[in-house]
Structures are given as C-alpha cells and as structure tokens.
Write a structure and sequence with these properties.
The structure holds 2 protein chains of 2 kinds.
Chain A (H helix, E strand, L loop, with lengths): L1 E3 L4 H10 L4 E3 L5 H6 L7 E4 L9 E2 L3 E3 L4 H7 L5 H8 L4 H6 L2 H7 L7 H6 L3 E6 L2 E6 L4 E3 L2 E2 L6 E6 L7 E6 L10 E8 L4 E7 L6 E2 L1 H10 L10 H14 L10 H30 L1
Parallel strand pairs in A: 1-3, 2-3
Antiparallel strand pairs in A: 4-5, 5-10, 6-7, 6-10, 8-9, 11-12, 12-13, 13-14
Chain B lengths: L2 E5 L2 E5 L8 H8 L18 E4 L2 E4 L12 E3 L12 H9 L8 H14 L5 H7 L11 H13 L1
Parallel strand pairs in B: 1-5
Antiparallel strand pairs in B: 1-2, 3-4, 3-5
Helix pairs in contact in B: 2-5
Classes of the chains: A alpha+beta, B alpha+beta.
C-alpha cells in the first residue's frame, strides 16, 4: 500500500488522476474502520488532512470538504442551524473532532447524518479533478447505497450552502443520544421569502432522498406572510407524505414499518418546531 | 514507511510502519506506549483517546501516516514525573476505576473537557464522555471524579 500525502489541492488532484484507485482519507472515521477490520485493502491512501484549501470556509458559504463537524457546530451554527444540528448528532466528541461533511458525502451511506439537511437546504457539492470542476446539486449526488456521483479521478472539494433564510430542523431516531447510526432521520428547511419548503429523509431508502410531494403540499398549505399556529391536519398530512416518500427496509436497526411511522412523527414534530420559530418571530416584530 | 512524530514532547521515529496501520498500533506496538487501550478499533469505545495537535481523537481511527510531523499526547504524557495530573488523582480518589481498561481514554477526554470548560455542568460532563464506554462502573464514580478534579483546578 502507498501513503500519498499531498500538500496542495492541485497536488491532490494530480495524484488522484494518476492513482484513481487511491482511497481519500480525512478524519478516517469510516476508512480506518474498514482497514482495521480488513474489509478493504486499497492500493493507496490519499491523505487530505494536509491540504489547506479543504480545511477552510468562505462567506456565502463554501465549506471545505475537510472542515470537521466540531467547527460547523461551534462556528457555523448561526448561519447553518440545520447542518449544525445534524453534525451535533454524529458519533461522539472524538468522532466530531475528526469527521467531516466531505467524508459523509464520500461514504454516501444512506444513514449519513448530514444528508437530509444537505438535501433539504439545497446544498451543491463542488467536486474537482485535473479535468476541471463540477457543481453537483445534492439531489443528484447520491446514486445508490454507498454510491455517489464522483468519477474515479475526482475529489470532493467543498459544499456550497446559502446561510439559512428561515427556520431549519433536523431529527434522528436511534437507541441513545450518542454513538448511534440513524434508524431514520429527517431534515426540514423553510424558505419564507420564496414560499418554499425543503424536506428530506435519511436511512429510509437506498439513498437519502427528498420528499417532493410533502414539500409541495406544505408550501401551498403554509401562509408564510401571516404565520399562525398550524392546524393538526396540516402536520398530519405532511407527516404522511414524508412517510410515503421513503422506501425503507427491515434490518437490525429497525423494521420498515417502524421507520415509516417514525418518519411521520419526526416530520410532524420538526415542522411544529420550525413553524413555531416563525410564529414567535412574527410576534417579536409586532 | 518511516513515521516521525512528536509524542509526549519527545521526537520519536517508527520504522517499518505499514501504510494502513493506525496511530494506536504505532503507539502500542512500535513506540512502547501501551497506555492507550485497543478495544473496539472502530471509534465506538474511546479507550484509545489521545490528543492529536491538542484535539482529542480516537487513535484507532488515525492513519499512522497522518501524524507525520504532528504532535501526539497520550495518557502517559499527562503526569509530571511521579506527580499525577489532577484528573488522574481524582479518578484514584473517587474510585472511578474498576478493571481499568477504559480509564486512560476517560482520563484524556476528561482532561480535555476541564481545559475547555473549567466548571462543567453534569450534562456537559455526560456529553463530553458520551464516546467513552465503561462496562464496570456504571459511570457514577467517573462523574464524581470529574467533578472532584474540576473543584480542585
């Protein structure tokens, strides 16, 4: 095995072009488990922790793929509340000190914690190779179980997100608060100025996916201009539509029926929290 | 490959390191530092927690090559000679140790918590230690130890 240690993004892309079989490693929280358990023996590891371009973010927001969860939680919570909430549920403090959103995207596990938020808030993934840069909307990035839209010579460089223009919420079901892989998860973003809703499910289909019908229903049912307490019937219908967008399986973590039920509950609750924020905001202004 | 790394303020060198090896293996098997424990090898138990550039991480999830020219501080590097760190002393006094396997990881993680949050609330202590598993104590004595260490700093 070779250990490749680029110090610039250009060098990393050059190495990935020469060695498309090299496995990128940043926080190591997925890759090292596979190595430790002999599940994977790549011909090379491509260490991205020394590439400064990946470790920073700029206004707007363009978040380098190597920024660890702990910094998103501590430093970007005001701009990206949904992503911070999801990051907060990843593993343990030690894992959040190392793990990155770029790694979540690279692994493309249907259960990855940040995926529902990235989908619901319209994230765009910046990937690059020596051939150039591609901007891939999150909705087109996840192709199958642990499969994403990356070409073999490409690396995930950054995630582009606009600072939240309205309330965002994230919810996840697991057996305890820490160190848990999602049984299922849900993210919602409200865009009051555009009369738009983003909603996506995690760990409930071969890929994380948006709940389009639920988004459309809610966008037409909500009165963003005059936010009043929501009717239970609206919350219930939204929950039903979210649940219908999922196609979960039975596995060790939970049954398909349980996941469908839990998604409807999470959708109702997160909608309630997000909408309350708008109602309270309106009152505070009045 | 050869790995040069600063461990507990000493410049160290490990040779014949396999490229897919973990920092934990390098510490225990090549540098003679068995304090960090090898239990789950998947970041679930926290027994191998060490500082990497002053940030606590699971040593089993760090590739050996990633620590080249970086700084590692293990549980062996907390005491000052024969004088234990206040966190270590508190663990002894509070009886926060039974079989002892999880202790090094808990000590490093608690050490980091008290550096960042000198007077942590109980929820803050629980949250900080959420990634460290102990199968003997039931955690109550461990919480006592962290509170005791905090009160003495």
């Amino acid at each position: 095995m070779d250990f490749l240690r680029p110090e610039t993004l250009a060098e990393a892309l050059e190495l990935k072009a020469q060695r498309p079989d090299a496995v990128p490693i940043a926080g190591g929280t997925d890759v090292m488990v596979e190595l430790n358990y002999d599940h994977r023996r790549p011909s090379a590891l491509l260490d991205l922790t020394r590439v400064p371009e990946l470790q920073q973010w700029s206004d707007g927001l363009r978040i380098g793929a190597g920024v660890p969860y702990v910094r998103i939680i501590d430093e970007l919570g005001a701009e990206l509340p949904g992503l911070a909430m999801a990051s907060r549920t990843v593993g343990s403090p030690q894992i959040r000190n190392r793990g990155t959103v770029g790694g979540n995207l690279g692994a493309a596990s249907p259960a990855g914690d940040t995926h529902p938020v990235l989908l619901a808030s319209g994230a765009v993934i910046e990937v690059a190779s020596v051939r150039g840069t591609r901007m891939i909307p999150a909705a087109e990035f996840y192709l199958g179980v642990k499969r994403n839209a990356l070409e073999p010579d490409e690396l995930i460089v950054a995630v582009h997100l606009t600072p939240a223009k309205g309330p965002q919420q994230f919810s996840k079901v697991g057996t305890r608060n820490a160190m848990v892989i999602a049984v299922c998860s849900f993210g919602i973003s409200l865009f009051p100025e555009e009369n738009r809703v983003g909603a996506a499910v995690g760990s409930a289909a071969p890929t994380p996916r948006r709940a389009h019908e639920a988004e459309q229903f809610l966008a037409s049912a909500l009165d963003f201009k005059n936010p009043k307490p929501l009717l239970d019937s609206v919350k219930r219908e939204f929950g039903e539509l979210v649940s219908r967008a999922a196609s979960p399986i039975d596995d060790v973590r939970g049954s398909a029926a349980y996941r469908k039920h839990a998604l409807a509950v999470m959708a109702r609750r997160t909608l309630g929290w997000a909408w309350q924020e708008l109602v309270d905001g309106e009152r505070a202004c009045a | 490959m050869r790995v040069n790394v600063t461990v507990n303020s000493e410049q160290r060198q490990a040779d014949d390191v396999w490229e897919g090896e973990s920092l934990l293996f390098v510490l225990r098997e090549r540098l003679g530092l068995p304090g960090s424990k090898n239990a789950c090898e998947q970041g679930e138990c926290g027994s191998c927690t060490v500082y990497l550039d002053n940030v606590p991480v699971c040593a089993c999830l760090v590739a050996a090559g990633q620590v080249q020219d970086r700084e590692v501080r293990t549980v062996e590097g907390l005491a000052d000679g024969d004088t234990l760190d206040p966190v270590q002393e508190a663990f002894v006094e509070a009886g926060a140790v039974q079989c002892g396997f999880c202790t090094p990881g808990l000590v490093v993680q608690a050490h980091d918590l008290l550096d960042r949050v000198p007077n942590p609330s109980d929820p803050e202590i629980r949250e900080a230690l959420a990634g460290n598993l102990c199968r003997c104590t039931g955690y109550e004595k461990i919480l006592d130890a962290v509170r005791l260490a905090a009160s003495r700093r």
